Amino acid sequence: MWQRGVWLKPAVFLASLAPAAALAYMLLGGRLGVNPIERLTDETGELALRFLILSLAASPLRYVLSRTWPLKLRRMLGLFAFFYALLHVLIWSVLDLQVDIAAMWDDLLRRPYIFAGFIAFAILSCLAATSTRGIARRMKHRWTILHRWVYIAAAAAIVHYVWLVKGDRLEPFVYLAALALLYLYRFKRLLSA
Amino acid sequence: MRDWMKLAGISPDEITDKAVFEKRRQLMRASVAAGVGGFIGGGVTSASAAPLSGDIIKTDWTTDEEHTSFDAATSYNNFYELGTAKEDPKRHARRLKTEPWSVRVEGACEKPGTYTLEDILKPHAIEERVYRLRCVEAWSMVIPWNGFALADLLKRFEPTSAAKYVAFETVVQDDLPGVRRNVLDWPYREGLRIDEAMHPLSFMAIGMYGEHMPNQNGAPIRLVVPWKYGYKSIKSVVTIRFQEETPETSWNLSQPSEYGFFSNVNPDRSHPRWSQAKERRLAGDSGGLSALFTPKIDTRFMNGYAEEVAGLYAGMDLQKFH
Predict the structure, then answer these.
(1) CB under 8 Å to A129, separation ≥6 — which residues?
(2) Chain B within 8 Å of A142 (Cβ-Cβ)?
């Protein structure tokens, strides 16, 4: 018999993969516009940011809804954030810069927004690498401390976005507002605990 | 072979004479119009929209490089009045009203006034110039423009000795999506030093690829200054002002640390957002996977026009005066 809620994880998993599938489909059909590399970079970057914010929303959502299911999705949403961030970095380094190490290094040092993005990606990589239950068990409370760095990663990712936009900053500020709201909620709970 | 013939899939030997060709073209257009019912009309937004009438003089200002397709050059634009995404200007092109159009000429000249577009165009023969267009965002295109030398236009207004600079402004129409959002401090403003403006490469374009200028590319009349970053080539011009002081320019007002007045293409001067050493050439017909593995090309000093324009900047520190 199907247990209640057993469909939840597979459904969210498929829904999270759908944007990647849509991008691949558009790519093969030549429907990514005049500058497909730029388009792919932008889309994967925004997806990473969205999943990061969704994963951060899991914990507040548990309290708001008085349900535990959001927590069951947190790890997966976080891993999807890493997945899209990894695609984003690969597109930038392999397709855009053609693995030109000197150019990457130059970008990293000279362009603050790239540096902020690098910080976010480095943190997400550490979190993804230590995301299994086994590692969590072995690291004990240090795991919880390490994984709080996700808040720094999210802040760095949004700084990365705000700094790279040329004229119209509306979109990055929407993400910034969402993140601020989540931080506020977190902070309030800490104080009242 | 003209690009619009290539676009239409017509080779030169198919053509017996121009009249036959024009007639065929009219028929083509009529059939397109019939097929789409009432949707044709208003802004010039599609490939078959409106060829320029009259002869277009070929010039030596050309290049062997592959031309960007008309479709790419009209679907990937920075025209913030029409929206900030690259596809926005084409999407909102119809909202730009280009009729009637007049240009206000003011400041240090003998013949200021408001000139209708017809007045502006009347004495000029239309030339083709195939120029590289290098955007500060590190992409580039190769575009055949149609128009006339900016110098030929400016001389008609008889600038005085106080005219050290020329300032330009783009139209502000309040209902355009980008204008409503105040993305930049409108009107969009640009400027050139008078010797830059009078340089034979500086060009006023009224069309491209033998077609009337599409709205998203700056209809009905725009500037093209090929050795500078694209944002200097101001679109949909309604004001030309001769003045003694350096003109305010929009991107400089918005981010003075990033965008200088001169904005000459310079691979050796790194920009805080984009390394300017290389550029992605957007040809437009290499869709799909192959476009992903095409490397960037090296950006050339002054966008490859250094031989012609270096004299304008003799003795200037181009890192400082960027």
Answers:
(1) none
(2) no
The stretch A118-140 carries a mean pLDDT of: 96
Interface size between A and B, measured as CB pairs under 8 A: 65
> Which one, of B45, B147, B51, B151, lies nearest residue B98 by Cα?
B45
State whether residue A3 sits within 8 Å of chain B by CB. no
For residues A76 and A66, give the distance between their C-alpha atoms in angstroms, rounded to a whole number: 20
Q: Read off the pLDDT of residues A60-85 as tens digits, 9 standing for 90 and up.
A: 999 889 999 999 999 999 999 999 99
ipTM: 0.87
The whole-number average pLDDT for the span A140-150 is: 93
Q: Is residue B50 part of a domain?
A: no
Query: Domain limits of chain A?
Result: 8-192
Residue B49 clears pLDDT 50, i.e. is over it: yes
Q: What residues of B are in the A interface, CB distance below 8 Å?
A: 72, 75-76, 80, 84, 86-87, 137, 139, 181, 183-184, 254, 270, 272-273, 275, 277-278, 280, 282, 284, 287-289, 291-293, 295-296
pLDDT for B30 equals 41
Burial class (CB in 10 A: 0-12, 13-18, 19+), B11: exposed
B192 and B234 co-located in one domain: yes
Tokens of B94: 């119809």
The pLDDT tens digits of the residues spanning B200-238 come to 999 999 999 999 999 999 999 999 999 999 999 999 999
B267 prior amide bond cis, ω within 30:
no
Are both B13 and B87 inside the same structural domain?
no
Q: Could you tell me if residue B48 is inside a domain? A: no
For A58, the 3-state DSSP assignment is helix
CATH, residue B84? 3.90.420.10
Q: What domain count does chain B have? A: 2
pLDDT band at A4 (very low <50, low <70, confident <90, very high): low
pLDDT at residue B4 tops 80: no
Distance separating alpha carbons of residues B21 and B3, to the nearest angstrom:
14
Q: CA B92 to CA B216: how far, in whole Å?
A: 8
pLDDT at residue B24 tops 50 = no
Q: Between chains, do A36 and B291 touch, taking CB under 8 Å as contact?
A: yes
> CA-nearest residue of chain A to B293?
A95
Best A32, A34, A110 residue to mutate vs chain B (most B CBs within 10 Å):
A34
Look at A41 and B255; give whichever has higher pLDDT: A41
Look over chain A and give the mean of its residue pLDDT values, rounded to a whole number. 92
List of chain B residues whose C-beta atoms are within 8 Å of the C-beta of residue A110:
270, 272, 275
Chain B positions touching A99 (Cβ under 8 A) are none
Give the mutation candidate from B67, B71, B77, B84 for the A interface (greatest A CB count, under 10 A).
B84
Least confident interval from A178-182, B26-30, B140-144, B279-283? B26-30
